C-alpha cells in the first residue's frame, strides 16, 4: 500500500472514530450514567455543551501545532487527549471530573479531525483532493451512523458504561499510535494559512486571485448573510440538542435506550445521504427552496416528536429530521458561495459557523427542561416554533444581496448565478 493511500485510510479512520465516540453517541452513554450516578439532566446537558464548546474554541489550535511540531504529532496528541478523556470518563464519580473529560474529548476531536486530515489529503492528492476529501467526510459521517449502535452493543452486552469508556480509551490510543506511525507531511506547514486554505480547489484559488466586488465587512452586514447565519444557528442548535436528548426522550416511552440509539443512527444516516444528494440537487433547484424545505421538514419532525409515544413514530421523526438537516445545512453553504463568491466564501462560512457556537446552549436548556417538567417536549416544541419562524423569514426575506459597492463608490455587478434567479 502506498504512503498516500495509507494516510487516506488512517485519517478517515480517525474521523470515523471521533464522530462515532463523541457527539452522536454521548447521549446514549449519558442516559446510563445519569441513571446510575444520580446526575440531573441539566448537568448532563452541560457536559454535552462543554464538549461542543471545547471543540469550537480549540479549532484554531491544530494549524498552530501543525506548524510547530508537524501533523503527525498533532494527530497523535489528539488521540492521546481523547484517550485520557475517555479514561477519566470511565473512572468518574462526580460531574466536575466528567466536565474535564468532555473538554478533553472536544480538544482531541479538533486535533484529530478535520483540519489536519484535509491538509494531508490536499497535499498528498493534489490532483484529486476534492474527491479524496469528499470520501473522508463520508467516512466521518458514517461514524455518526455506527457510533450509537456500537455503544449500545457494548453497554447492553457488558452491562457497564464504564467498560464502554475503557474500550474507547484503548481505541483512541490505538488511533493516535496509527497516526504516529503512518502520517507524514508531504509539504511542511509554514504558516497557519496553509492549513486553512488546504481544501481550496484550483478554481476557487483562481477566484481568490481576482478582484472581487464584495468585501468581508460588506458581506457580513448584508441581510442575506444575517438570515443565512440565523438559519444555520437554529439548525445547529436543534441538531446538537437532538444528539444530547433523543436517546433519553425515546427511552421515556418505556422501551429502553436501544430504540433511542437506533433513532439516532437513523437520523445520522438520512442526514448523510441528504447532504450527498443536496449538492447535485442544488445545481437544478434553487438552493433557497431547498433551504426552506429543509427547515420545514425539521419543524415537522420536532412537532411529531412532541406527540410521539412509540419508537416507530420516533423513527419517522428521526428520518424527517435527518433529511431536513441535510437539505438545509448544505443548501445554506451553497447560498453563501453563490451570493458572495468563491473569493470570500471560506471566510463567510467561518463567520457563520462561529455564530453556530451558540448551539451549545441547547443541551443545557433541554436538560433544565427535563429536570423541571420531567420531559424534553417543551424544548422540542420551542424548537419547532423557532424552525417555523426560520421557514417564514427565509421564504419571505432571503434574497440575493444587492450589488456591492466598489472602492470608487460605483456599484459592482453581481454575476453570481443566484443573482439571476428569483
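^ C-alpha cells above, recovered residues below v
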Amino acid at each position: 500500500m502506498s504512503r498516500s493511500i495509507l494516510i487516506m485510510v488512517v485519517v478517515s479512520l480517525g474521523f470515523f472514530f471521533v464522530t462515532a465516540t463523541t457527539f452522536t453517541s454521548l447521549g446514549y452513554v449519558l442516559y446510563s450514567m445519569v441513571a446510575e450516578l444520580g446526575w440531573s439532566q441539566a448537568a448532563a446537558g452541560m457536559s454535552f455543551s462543554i464538549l461542543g464548546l471545547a471543540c469550537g474554541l480549540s479549532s484554531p489550535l491544530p494549524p498552530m501545532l501543525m506548524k510547530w511540531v508537524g501533523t503527525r504529532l498533532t494527530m497523535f496528541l489528539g488521540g492521546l487527549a481523547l484517550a485520557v478523556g475517555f479514561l477519566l470518563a470511565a473512572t468518574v464519580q462526580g460531574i466536575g471530573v466528567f466536565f474535564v473529560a468532555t473538554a478533553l474529548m472536544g480538544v482531541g476531536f479538533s486535533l484529530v479531525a478535520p483540519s489536519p486530515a484535509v491538509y494531508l489529503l490536499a497535499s498528498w492528492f493534489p490532483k484529486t483532493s476534492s474527491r479524496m476529501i469528499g470520501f473522508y467526510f463520508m467516512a466521518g459521517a458514517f461514524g455518526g451512523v455506527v457510533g450509537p449502535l456500537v455503544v449500545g452493543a457494548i453497554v447492553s452486552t457488558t452491562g457497564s458504561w464504564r467498560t464502554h469508556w475503557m474500550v474507547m480509551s484503548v481505541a483512541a490510543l490505538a488511533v493516535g499510535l496509527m497516526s504516529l506511525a503512518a502520517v507524514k507531511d508531504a509539504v511542511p506547514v509554514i504558516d497557519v494559512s496553509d492549513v486553512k486554505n488546504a481544501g481550496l480547489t484550483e478554481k476557487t484559488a483562481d477566484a481568490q486571485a481576482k478582484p472581487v466586488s464584495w468585501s468581508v465587512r460588506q458581506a457580513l452586514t448584508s441581510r442575506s448573510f444575517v438570515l443565512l447565519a440565523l438559519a444555520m444557528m437554529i439548525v445547529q442548535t436543534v441538531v446538537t440538542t437532538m444528539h444530547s436528548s433523543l436517546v433519553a426522550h425515546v427511552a421515556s416511552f418505556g422501551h429502553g435506550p436501544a430504540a433511542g440509539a437506533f433513532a439516532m443512527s437513523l437520523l445520522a444516516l438520512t442526514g448523510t445521504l441528504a447532504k450527498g444528494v443536496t449538492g447535485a440537487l442544488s445545481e437544478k433547484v434553487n438552493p433557497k427552496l431547498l433551504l426552506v424545505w429543509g427547515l420545514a421538514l425539521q419543524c415537522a419532525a420536532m412537532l411529531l416528536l412532541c406527540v410521539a409515544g412509540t419508537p416507530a413514530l420516533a423513527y419517522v421523526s428521526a428520518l424527517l429530521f435527518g433529511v431536513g438537516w441535510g437539505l438545509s445545512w448544505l443548501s445554506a453553504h451553497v447560498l453563501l458561495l453563490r451570493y458572495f463568491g468563491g473569493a470570500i466564501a471560506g471566510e463567510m462560512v467561518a463567520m457563520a459557523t462561529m455564530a453556530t457556537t451558540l448551539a451549545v446552549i441547547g443541551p443545557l436548556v433541554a436538560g433544565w427542561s427535563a429536570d423541571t417538567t420531567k420531559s424534553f417536549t417543551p424544548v422540542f416544541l420551542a424548537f419547532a416554533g423557532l424552525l417555523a419562524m426560520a421557514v417564514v423569514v427565509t421564504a419571505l426575506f432571503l434574497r440575493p444581496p444587492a450589488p456591492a459597492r466598489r472602492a470608487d463608490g460605483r456599484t459592482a455587478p453581481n454575476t453570481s448565478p443566484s443573482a439571476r434567479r428569483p
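The longest helix spans residues 223-255.
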